[in-house]
Amino acid sequence: MTPQRLLVYLLIIAFVAAPFLGLLYGPTIGLMLLTLAIALTLGLTIPAMEQSPPEQQPRLALMIKLNWAMLVLAIVFLIVSIIA
Fold it and tell me: How many domains are there within the chain?
């Protein structure tokens, strides 16, 4: 199993499990998994952009910027959730 394949499996598990674990154990756990999932998405997207055709790179660059913004927001909400 390649490292990228393992990242894809972890990404799927994190995105699927985050809402359910958030409902069961509280929003902090859900936000932790959401943060992990967004970070894994970035970990897969950044190398993919380098290998993509030039016409797709602007869209992938926009997606990477949006994922960075969502990651920062998820971390901020996670910190607020832990403090509160």
Answer: 1
